[in-house]
Amino acid sequence: MSALSRPEFHSEEAAFAHLEKIVWAGEPVCPHCGGMDRITKVKANPEKRIREGLWRCGDCKKQFTVKIGTVFEHMRLPLHKALQAVYLMTSSKKGISAHQLHRVLEITYKSAWFLAHRIREAMTSGDVGPLGGLGATVEADETFIGREPGAMVKPAYFHKMKVVSLVEHGAGRARSFVVDGVGVADLQPMLRANIHPLSKLTTDEANAYKTIGRFFYQHDTVNHGKLEFGRGKAHTNTIEGYFSIFKRGMKGVYQHCAKKHLHLYLAEFDFRYTHRAAIGFNDTDRSVQAMKGIVGKRLTYARPDLDA
């Protein structure tokens, strides 16, 4: 049976059962009062306009579905199509465009665009702890993409949007940020907040890292300007590989991204990289992990810029 032929991708009843299993782990919880003991299932009846997935709390007498309190709350699309979108976005290594979602799911482009952003919001990591630790290595590097809003074309990278990423060896976690500059003042607070001080930091020869490196247990560099791509065990090949996937996706699939949305696209690429096959995740595991992130997040529909 192919992945997209699974029942939760074609039946609302199966879709709600699948999501309830992930979010509630078999124990329905009332989002209004927190009750768990006197909850009953309301049987769906289209003729009486009783929708699928409805529950009733005996304590507060209110009705609810598993979508309340998640990025899917007030979503007008069928849930089984949203679950298809989650699977497609988490299993496509370089992403899938809103236009492609609109064609595959047979929904409007506007709905596909907003649904994709809801899923990216679910992919944002709640992990605020530092990467690395004693004996662990974290690679840090910056890349440039697109164009800063209103910026004129200038030499080098000054007119481009700036991204700094961190990749932890072993655990494989990736964490990326949109920054306004790549000087010491821009990078030092971010690196110190997101990398454990007992970590080994590996970077290229950029001057900013020479100052920042003293805050960590060890700082190794490679000089790309002199065509040096490894010095002993030190290299930045891992993070360069991450940037390769990111650039191919942004240029080949999405093609354009406004700066105000770039952090969500970074969250998408961070999520797929952190949960990649080399770490032990398959496509199904990755989609389930993404759906675990829908709780407690909302992305309201407020006239999104569809050209971004």
What does this structure look like?
This protein has 308 residues and is an alpha/beta fold. The protein has a domain at 137-257: Nucleotidyltransferase, domain 5 (2-Layer Sandwich), CATH 3.30.420. It is 36% helix and 13% strand. It has a 5-stranded mixed sheet, sandwiched between helices. Strands 1-2-3 form a 3-stranded antiparallel sheet, with no helix packed on it. Strand 2 and strand 3 form a beta hairpin. Helix 2 (79-91) crosses helix 9 and helix 4 (109-123) crosses helix 8. The two termini are 37 Å apart.
Shape: elongated
Strand order of the largest sheet: 6-5-4-7-8
Overall pLDDT metric: 91
Uncertain runs with pLDDT below 50, 5 residues or more? none
Number of helical segments with 4 or more residues: 9
Task: Please sum up the structure shown.
The two termini are 37 Å apart. 36% of the residues lie in helices and 13% in strands.
Secondary structure layout plus pairing:
Blueprint: H1 12-24, E1 39-41, E2 55-57, E3 63-64, H2 79-91, H3 98-105, H4 109-123, E4 137-145, E5 161-168, E6 174-179, H5 184-194, E7 200-203, H6 207-212, E8 218-221, H7 237-254, H8 259-274, H9 283-292
Parallel strand pairs: 4-7, 7-8
Antiparallel strand pairs: 1-2, 2-3, 4-5, 5-6
Helix pairs in contact: 2-9, 3-4, 4-8, 7-8
Short key terms for the protein model shown above:
308 residues; alpha/beta; Nucleotidyltransferase, domain 5; five-stranded mixed β-sheet; three-stranded antiparallel β-sheet; 9 helices; 8 strands; elongated
